[in-house]
Amino acid sequence: MTSEADTATNDDIKTMSFEQALEALENIVNDLERGDVPLEQSIRIYERGEALKAHCDRLLTAAEDKVEKIRLSREGAPTGSEPLDPQ
Questions:
Q1: Residue 87 has pLDDT above 60, yes or no
Q2: Cβ contact 55:41 at 8 Å
Q3: Which of 20, 51, 71, 78 could potentially form a cystine with 16 if both were Cys, beta carbons 3.0 to 4.6 Å apart?
Q4: Residue 86 lies in a domain
Q5: 64-87: burial string, b at 16+ Cβ within 10 Å, e else
Q6: Residue 28: helix, strand or coil by DSSP?
Q7: Are strands 68-72 and 78-83 parallel, antiparallel or unpaired?
Q8: Quick check: is 24 in a domain?
Q9: How confident is the model over 27-39, as pLDDT tens digits?
Q10: The dihedral of CA 49, 52, 54, 57: what is its sign?
Q11: Residue 24, exposed/middle/buried by CB under 10 A (0-12, 13-18, 19+)?
């Protein structure tokens, strides 16, 4: 079991990188899948997992917003960029 999930508050999540949050989420999933976590602790770490998932979703959305598609001229030379998925 991850002691990090027991002692940390969700306030630390907003400072995590995507990779850190994903690793913490994977640890929580592993702990819950083992099935040897007491019910009260399972609820706490599940809630932390939900917060980690939401943080990862926000970071991915922000990254997707930054991705651009390069426009090419007929000759194949770059002429600028535009959003990858214009909405």
A1: no
A2: no
A3: 20
A4: no
A5: eeeeeeeeeeeeeeeeeeeeeeee
A6: helix
A7: antiparallel
A8: yes
A9: 999 999 999 999 9
A10: negative
A11: buried
Counting the structural domains of the chain, the total is 1
Residue 72, beta-bridge partner list: 78
Place of tokens 């989420």: 25
Segment 65-85 shows an average pLDDT of 74
Residue 78 counted as domain residue: no
- The residue type found at 66 is K
Map residue 24 onto helix, strand or coil: helix
Report the range of poorest mean pLDDT among 4-8, 34-38, 76-80.
4-8
* Residue 4 · residue 27 · CB < 8 Å: yes
**Domain containing 10: what range?**
3-66
Check residue 39 and report its DSSP letter. H
Task: Say if 18 falls within a structural domain.
Answer: yes
